[in-house]
Every structure is written in structure tokens, then in C-alpha cells.
Write a structure and sequence with these properties.
about 775 residues, alpha+beta, BirA Bifunctional Protein, domain 2, 26 strands, globular, binds serine
Length: about 775
């Protein structure tokens, strides 16, 4: 069987057992507590928890998974062994409250031994035996099922069943979420099929006996407080390591000859990428695996680099195709780290040059594009993003490697420690992720002083914080009273109507005074939208409000103009007083225009450039808006014009803008939400004309026509992989156009040429 046949035979088998075959979900997880999709079950979490009804009782699929950060992290082993990957396919079958342990384990055994012909004697099963303080009880049910299976195969259950504690046999997706006891199937790959020898290697970290299939019996939800709540129904979640089985099949010539050293990389799914690296480097992969990370032989360096590149090219291609671009934070930084490691190994051990990693996208698409079609549709974007990283990191890599050598040669403490200061220098100036420096250091038998590095990182963060530090808000509410959130009544404002409210608190800081009311039409700065300004009339005195911010309890703090602050003679008003609040209406409308313009620009960029474009940060004021987004290269002049054209078409269309509150769980799939951002149970969806839907708490125009016109005034890079657009809308856009016109007409006057002739006069056209 080829790798592709193994994949399809798994899916066909479960189809014959009435499973619906579904596509892999994106590597960008839907669960907010995950960095990446790390298991086949992630996309089914709402069904396990009973939040949504599953459309099927049984499903099977092949799922792209990344385990390179968070609870499940295999990154350190990639390249150094032959069976860990950053990105792998997990073949899986699921029951949503339908069949349970008996069917799952029996079918698993049938597929492995009867359909694929794996010798039963080489298989071992593990069952859950809780240790002290571990959840739940011994999994007698799984034990009994396995005992019968092994007995029927003429094998001794006592030899073939191994008990495992929470660490090995209680599967959790993350620290929270659906979980339960599991039963794994391990494969003895020793040359001899001696059962005792095989059993001894189960869960012993040997490449000669590896887990191939995990059957999880989802029965609990892990709560944040460490408790486990039983679920209403019991489910099955299994995961079979596709590359492992394909690799074993290839190494053993169809599970028959166990004399050769096993390696996942023998699977034909990796072959096109190996071939390409060999062609680019002129070197040969020989499959050596080091026993130690220090004192590597020349060919071991080469073979490690081959494996790293084959693995990393798949991982970054699939991640980028799913919109996870290399960046500076969270999951984007993990992808950057993986990419940089690949670039570094390619350079150091295979003498590859800038652009070579980009050319590995082609064999990745060739081997996986039919199964994961987004690799084909997003290919150009994937190549550009990798190329951009190769170019930016490539510029400092050689110098960084030189610095590393130099500092490693000078290593203090008897030559065993690579200083935190050197690691920080490599990180800060040469873009070396810490784990990459650790890998390089390990090759020289050095340990990086991580705490020294962290200390310098913290100092750098502190400098950043100090630079950003603003006035500290001190809540004046004392004692145990929990301050009540202010009721916001200002999504739509009638300029003819003031809002009546009660003053509930006066908050003072060293510099400023803030008024707090029980309710308010003043929007408090949030989601990049600036706070409202306006006035509060209290006991016949008008207080000018220049800004509004929110404190931790959700109270809107209305900032008084400096003249009305504590140092002035004006007495702050009395708590309990009745107030009339009036938002500066024309300022608010100008903010609304810029906020809705930001949504339109976001929509247009995703439409033009691809769905990898994601809002990264934004700022909306009455005069201007700033929109930061993930993208790997500068927009061309033509793209900026196209973006302007697209958004202004929507402005002229005068599309309606609606907002509605819904349950986060019920959010339709086409609503843009940004994980990593925190959302409550209830969320607000802003829908512009049915084409742009985003989770957003801000204020907007009521139809797009109100925006008037949008002009993009700047486009720039703010970090590798992150761009910024600045734009103006409404009156600010008209002012911008007028200023440009005035400049043009001054020039035309000076040249004594009509405006239309100016360009010609300069010989530009
Ligand atoms: N969720 C389990 C795992 O990832 C089985 O699919 O191992």
C-alpha cells in the first residue's frame, strides 16, 4: 500500500461501519485555549460538551494537527528521532453518544490485524489504572474487551495488556475541556516478535515500540479548578498516527520484515520533499539517527537537517495555508520559530540559500494538496510568506551563526554554559529564537542559561511597559463593595435627547478626575475605538468631558477637562446628584465613520489578498483610522487603489449596518472572531450589508452611505509579517482630498500649467 492507500483504506473501513467522512478542520483552532488544532477531536468539542447537537452519530476523517506548543509539544524531538513531527495527520473515528468501548476497540483490532495484516503478536494495549489523586477508576471495561480480543487471537492478555496512569492513559486536549480514560495500541518493531521484549518497551520512549492508535473514551469535562465533571453522554475519540503507520508499512515491506530500523520518513508521503532537498543541496539522505546531541558526525548533521526541513516545510506550509502567518506573538511566533529553525538547518548543514525553503512548498503541495486542497488554493500566498521570512531572517543568519560560534568558544563555567546575555543578543539583534540557540548550544555540549536570558527579556518588557505607562486609575470605591458596571445606552444617539443619569462615584488620580454614572451614552475606549467626549450637566453646572475609559469592573470613567480637574477651584459634584449627559454628537459620528471604514477595509483586504489577513490591532478616532493586519509584503499601488475602490463601492451602495447580540457558541461560521482575543458568553455581531460580519462592541454608522468617502493615506510595515493601513473617512477624507488639490493647484500655478498638464510638464507620463 502507498501512504495514500493507507489513508483511504482507513476512511473506507469506517465508511463501511456507517461513519460519515468529514474534511479536516483548519489548523487555526476554534477552541480559545489552544495554540493550534492538536487533535482530531478539537472540531467536535461542542458535540462532546452537549453545546451543539452533532449532525452525525459517527464520523471519521484525517485531521492536520500541530503539536509544537502548549500541552502537547513535540518540537524538540523533530529531526533527532524518526517518529515525532510538528505537523502530522491524525486518522480518527468518532462516536457522539453512539457506540462505545467495545465497538471502538474491536473495529480497531479488525482494521489493524485483518485489513492491514499487522501480526497480532506485535501489538500491545494499554488501559487506564489511576495513580493516587488521579481522576476516575481502573478501566475494567476496556481491560475485559482487550482480554477477550487477545485470548481469541491465542495471545496472553497478561502479556499484551499494560496498565498506565493519568499521564499515559487519561487523555486531555488541554488543561480544560473534554477528556477521559484512553486505551492505546502499541506496535513492537524489534526484529524479533518476542512478546516479553516488546512489552518491556511499551511507553519506554523507544522507536522500536511505538504507540500507533489512541482510543479515548470521552466521559468528563476538565474544569479550570482541576475538577472533572461527568458529561451527559459518553463518546469515542480515536486518533491513529498516519505517518507512523505509513512509515512502518514502508519500512517493514507491508508489516512483514522487521529487520530494518523503523522511520516514519520512509513513508512515500515525504519522498518528493526529500528528493527536492537532495537536488537543492547536492547531498544525500542516509537515515542516520544520532544517539546523542553532542559531537554529531557530519552525515548525522545532514540527516537531521533533511528530516527537520521535510517536517518543517510541511508544517509551515499547512499553517500558512490556514492563515497562520509567521509573526511575533502566540501561535504566529511558533510558526516563525519553526520556519527559522528550518532556514537555519538548511543553511548550516546543507548549505541551502535564500529561496530554497520556499521551493519546498511545491513537493509539499504535490504530496498533500489532494487531501488538503487549501494548500493548492493558497500556494502563492504560502510561498510568498516563506520567502519573505527567508529574506528577512537570511540577512542576519550568517552573522548570527558567527556570533554564536564566537560566544560558544568563549563559554564560561568550564565551557558548559552558554550565557543568557549571548542568547539574548542573538534573539534581540539576530532574530534567533531561544529554542534555536538551545539546539545549537546542545550540539556543542552547552546549556543555555535560560534564567539569565529570561531576566534580560523581562527587563526589555519592563522598558516597553515604562514607555507605555499612563496615569493609573484608582477606584475610589472602598471596602468590599464590588463596583457595578455602568449601563451603556449609547449605541444609537439622538442628538436632541440628553440621557438622565445618577452620579455614583468620583474617581481621582494624581492628574485627573473622572465621573461615574449609573448609565451613560458615552462609549468608553475599547477595541481600538477612542472614548467619547461631551458634557455632563450636574446641579446647573456644565462639566466638560474630554474622554471616557473603562475600569476593570466595567465602569465608564468620564474624564473631566483639566480646568475642571482637582487642582482647579471648581468643586467636583456630589455623589448621588442627578446628571444630564450629552455626547459630542458630530465627534461620535466621525468616529463611527472611521470604525465602519475599518470593517470595510478588513473585508476588502481579505477579499483581495486572502483569508490569512487578520486584524492585528486598530485605532479609530474622529480624524483617522489605523488598521494593522497580518500580511507578508507591501501592498502595491494598484492594490491600494483596488482596496479603495472596493470599499467606496460599498459606501455608495449605502448598505445597512446592523448589530445584534448572540451567544458566542451560536456564532455563525462566517462571523470573524479573533482567537487569542477574549470574548464573553454573549457577543455582539456587527453585520455590514451581509458581506462583512465581525464580533465587535464598537459604534458604527447605520448605513454605509454615512461614511461619505474613504481614502487610504498610508500603507507601511510595522513588523515582519504585519502591515498597517491608515485611512480617513467622511469630512476628514474630504479635507485630505482638498489639501492634495490645493497642493496640486499651487504647483500648477507655479508651473503656469493647467492641473491636467502638470504631470506632462514634469515628463512623468
Ligand atoms: N484525542 C486523542 C489523541 O489525540 C485521540 O484522538 O490522542
Amino acid at each position: 500500500m502507498t501512504s495514500a492507500q493507507i489513508r483511504s483504506s482507513f476512511l473506507d473501513f469506517f465508511k463501511s461501519k456507517q461513519h460519515a467522512i468529514v474534511p479536516s478542520s483548519s489548523l487555526l483552532p476554534t477552541a480559545p485555549n489552544l495554540l493550534f488544532t492538536n487533535a482530531g477531536m478539537n472540531q467536535f468539542v461542542p458535540y462532546f460538551l452537549g453545546d451543539q447537537t452533532a449532525p452525525w452519530r459517527r464520523v471519521a476523517d484525517t485531521q492536520k494537527c500541530i503539536r509544537a506548543g502548549g500541552k502537547h509539544n513535540d518540537l524538540e524531538d523533530v529531526g533527532f528521532d524518526t517518529y515525532h513531527h510538528t505537523m502530522f495527520e491524525m486518522l480518527g473515528n468518532w462516536s457522539f453518544g453512539d457506540y462505545f468501548k467495545k465497538e471502538s476497540l474491536t473495529w480497531g483490532w479488525e482494521l489493524l490485524t485483518q485489513i492491514w495484516g499487522i501480526p497480532p503478536k506485535r501489538l500491545f494495549a494499554t488501559v487506564y489504572q489511576p495513580g493516587k489523586n488521579d481522576p476516575s477508576v481502573f478501566d475494567q471495561e476496556a481491560y475485559d474487551i482487550w482480554a477477550k480480543i487477545f485470548k481469541d487471537a491465542g495471545l496472553d492478555p497478561k502479556v499484551h495488556i499494560v496498565h498506565g496512569n493519568k499521564q499515559d492513559n487519561f487523555w486531555m486536549m488541554g488543561d480544560t475541556g473534554p477528556c477521559g480514560p484512553c486505551s492505546e495500541i502499541h506496535f513492537n518493531l524489534l526484529p524479533s516478535d518476542d512478546e516479553k521484549a516488546g512489552r518491556a518497551l511499551v511507553n519506554a520512549g523507544s522507536p522500536r515500540c511505538i504507540e500507533i492508535w489512541n482510543h479515548v473514551f470521552i466521559q468528563f469535562n476538565a474544569n479550570a479548578d482541576g475538577t472533572f465533571a461527568p458529561l451527559a453522554a459518553k463518546h469515542v475519540d480515536t486518533g491513529l498516527g498516519f505517518e507512523r503507520v505509513a512509515g512502518i508499512h514502508a519500512t517493514t515491506k507491508g508489516f512483514k520484515d522487521f529487520s530494518a530500523e523503523p522511520s516514519n520518513y520512509n513513508a512515500d508521503v515525504f519522498q518528493p520533499t526529500f528528493d527536492k532537498i537532495a537536488a537543492l543541496s547536492g547531498k544525500k539522505y542516509t537515515g542516520t539517527v544520532p544517539t546523542d546531541r553532542t559531537g554529531l558526525k557530519a552525515q548525522e548533521h545532514v540527516d537531521i537537517a533533511f528530516r527537520v526541513l521535510v517536517d518543517h516545510a510541511r508544517c509551515v506550509s499547512c499553517a500558512i495555508a490556514d492563515g497562520i502567518l509567521p509573526g511575533n506573538e502566540g501561535r504566529n511566533y511558533v510558526i516563525r520559530r519553526i520556519l527559522r529553525r528550518g532556514i537555519m538547518y538548511g543553511r548550516k548543514s546543507l548549505n541551502l540559500k535564500i529561496g530554497d525553503l520556499t521551493s519546498l512548498v511545491e513537493p509539499v503541495v504535490q504530496s498533500l494538496g489532494d487531501v488538503f486542497p487549501e494548500l493548492k488554493t493558497q500556494r502563492v500566498m504560502v510561498e510568498r510568506a516563506i520567502r519573505a521570512e527567508e529574506e528577512s531572517f537570511g540577512r542576519t543568519l550568517d552573522k548570527g551563526l558567527e556570533i554564536f560560534q564566537l560566544h560558544a568558544d568563549l563559554a564560561p563555567h568550564g565551557g558548559k554554559i552558554f550565557s543568557g546575555q549571548s542568547a539574548f543578543l542573538l534573539y534581540d539583534t539576530y532574530g534567533f529564537p531561544l529554542d534555536m540557540t538551545q539546539l545549537l548550544a546542545a550540539e556543542r555540549g552547552l546549556k543555555v542559561d535560560v534564567s539569565g536570558f529570561e531576566k534580560l527579556m523581562e527587563q526589555q518588557r519592563e522598558r516597553g511597559r515604562a514607555a507605555r505607562k499612563t496615569d493609573v486609575i484608582v477606584a475610589s470605591t472602598e471596602g468590599d463593595t464590588v463596583a457595578e458596571a455602568t449601563k451603556f445606552v449609547g449605541y444609537t444617539i439622538d442628538p436632541a435627547q440628553a440621557t438622565h443619569a445618577k452620579l455614583v462615584d468620583v474617581v481621582k488620580t494624581e492628574k485627573d478626575t473622572y465621573l461615574v454614572f449609573d448609565q451613560t451614552p458615552f462609549y468608553a475606549e475599547m477595541g481600538g475605538q477612542v472614548g467619547d467626549a461631551g458634557a455632563a450637566l450636574i446641579d446647573g453646572v456644565e462639566f466638560k468631558i474630554v474622554d471616557c475609559i473603562k475600569d476593570k469592573s466595567g465602569r465608564h470613567l468620564h474624564k473631566l477637562a483639566t480646568a475642571e480637574a482637582p487642582s482647579s477651584n471648581l468643586q467636583p459634584p456630589k455623589i448621588g446628584a442627578a446628571a444630564t449627559l450629552q455626547v459630542d454628537y458630530s465627534r461620535r459620528r466621525a468616529i463611527n465613520r472611521h470604525h465602519s471604514a475599518a470593517h470595510l477595509i478588513h473585508w476588502a483586504l481579505r477579499k483581495m489578498l486572502g483569508t490569512h489577513v487578520r486584524q492585528f490591532g486598530t485605532h479609530k478616532t474622529p480624524d483617522r483610522m489605523r488598521f494593522d493586519f497580518t500580511h507578508f509584503e507591501a501592498l502595491t499601488h494598484a492594490q491600494i487603489k483596488e482596496c479603495e475602490q472596493l470599499v467606496n463601492e460599498k459606501v455608495i451602495d449605502n448598505s445597512p449596518v446592523n448589530a445584534a447580540e448572540i451567544d458566542y457558541d451560536k456564532k455563525p461560521a462566517d462571523v470573524l472572531a479573533f482567537f487569542g482575543d477574549k470574548y464573553g458568553k454573549r457577543v455582539r455581531v456587527v453585520d455590514i450589508g451581509g458581506f462583512s460580519k465581525e464580533l465587535c462592541g464598537g459604534t458604527h454608522v447605520s448605513t454605509t452611505g454615512e461614511i461619505g468617502v474613504i481614502k487610504i493615506v498610508a500603507e507601511m510595515a510595522i513588523a515582519a509579517g504585519t502591515r498597517r493601513i491608515e485611512a480617513v473617512a467622511g469630512q476628514a477624507a474630504l479635507d485630505h482630498i482638498a489639501a492634495k488639490e490645493a497642493a496640486l493647484s499651487a504647483v500648477s500655478h507655479r508651473l503656469n500649467a493647467g492641473v491636467a498638464d502638470v504631470v506632462q510638464k514634469f515628463g512623468i507620463n
